[in-house]
Amino acid sequence: MELSxxxxxxxxxxNHPIALHNLTVMRDKNTTAELFRxxxxxxxxxxxxxxxxxLPIINKIVETPLVETQxxxxxxxxEVIVAPILxxxxxxxxxxxELLPNARVHHIGLYRDEKTLxxxxxxxxxPESFNNPEDTFIYLLDPxxxxxxxxxxxxxxxxxxxxxxxxxRFICLISAPEGISRLHSKFPNVKIITACIxxxxxxxxYILPGLGDAGDRTFNTTY
Length: 223
Known about the structure:
By secondary structure, the chain is of the alpha/beta class. It has helices at residues 17-27, 33-51, 90-99, 149-159, 177-186, 214-219, and strands at 5-8, 11-14, 57-63, 68-74, 79-86, 104-105, 108-112, 119-124, 136-141, 144-145, 168-175, 191-197, 200-201, 207-208. The chain has one domain (5-55, 76-219): Rossmann fold. It starts with a strand and ends with a helix.
């Protein structure tokens, strides 16, 4: 897949035409839940492919129908963790598991208190420790990076388990400048992969222009 990308230090904005098209579908308030989910899957695939370019590669001898040759595979000794933030990150994790079927999936339950805008943790199924944290790669999945509170709380769960910041990547559909700045002020070496950096947050902490509540639109619970 050939991608047109805008790059800056520890931020990658994927502006492939297919990514932009599907993001527009998601922004449209008239898009149905089914079409919203389908657009999420397509966009998530583009983002996840770019986010995983840090996975280590090793050589393997394989035999084609014609000849024996050296080929590349992802190092099987590396530990790959996909961590969707519930509930809107679940569609992301479906795509991630298709692309990396041997990855472990750990769910993180966080929601934002609408009064304080601070994250509230209600669930995670992380282990007490990782066998080889130096070679463990974390891909956090959340449709939106708004205030950055939930992202920071999720990242801290892994850094507290001795995972290096450089091995953690945060993947989101859209992001706000405020969230990016806050995340990188706390974890400057965590790379953010996003389809768009939107304008700003409103007084309620919602991204503008945004796409609404990704969880409600994904699961058709908008009333």
